[in-house]
Amino acid sequence: MSMNMGSGIGRRRGGRGRAPMAEINVTPFVDVMLVLLIIFMVTAPLLVTGVPVDLPESRANALEQEQEPVQISIDNEGRIFIDDEELSRGALDARLREIAADQNPEDPRQIMLRGDRTLDYGLIMGVMGELNRAGLNRVSLVTTGSSEAP
């Protein structure tokens, strides 16, 4: 008396030939992420504003911000730029008042002031005075990061 116990061993449940695959192939995802990383590494240096300014160094941390700040730059020749638009000293006051009028009073726009390190202190303070007169009081001075104490 023998029993045939091995007749169903070679078959899978339900008579299907293949079991469902329970693994995800992550190789294509890794490939896509590496390509995106390379793209960001190549394009990141190109996103810097177009006004060349030799910024001073500081050990201060970067500020968190919710909306795009207004970039005011003063180059080594004393020319003033708002974003990439060059302005005369006389036109600066009118343009700053336009910016102040367009902002939300509950969430004022951040002003990023970038001044060349070779500039006269009085010129930078003059621009800061114009910002204050226009009602733009959230002003940050932009520097390059440094790990050394001055």
Could you please describe the fold and organization of this structure?
The chain has three helices and seven strands. It is an alpha/beta fold and about 150 residues long. The chain has a domain of about 90 residues: 2-Layer Sandwich (Nucleotidyltransferase, domain 5). The protein is elongated and about 80 Å long. The N and C termini lie far apart (about 95 Å). The model has no long low-confidence stretch (mean pLDDT about 75).
Return the structural class: alpha/beta
- The CATH architecture designation of the domain at 57-145 is 2-Layer Sandwich
Number of helical elements? 3
Supply Rg: 30 Å
Low-confidence stretches: none
Q: Termini distance? A: 96 Å
The best one-word shape is elongated
Please indicate the percent range of residues in DSSP E strands (runs of 2 or more). Answer: 15-25%
- What do we call the CATH topology of the domain at 57-145? Nucleotidyltransferase, domain 5
Question: Helix share of residues?
Answer: 25-40%
- The counted number of beta strands is 7
Main beta sheet strand tally, sense and closure: 5 strands, mixed
**H/E element order:** HEEEEHEHEE
Give me the side-by-side strand order of the main sheet.
Answer: 4-3-2-5-6
State the name of the first-level CATH class of the domain at 57-145: Alpha Beta
Overall pLDDT: 77
Task: Give the tags.
Nucleotidyltransferase, domain 5; two-stranded parallel sheet; single chain; 5-stranded mixed sheet; alpha/beta; 150 residues
Walk me through the topology.
Layout: H1 27-43, E1 57-58, E2 70-74, E3 80-82, E4 85-87, H2 89-102, E5 111-115, H3 121-134, E6 139-141, E7 144-145
Helix pairs in contact: 2-3
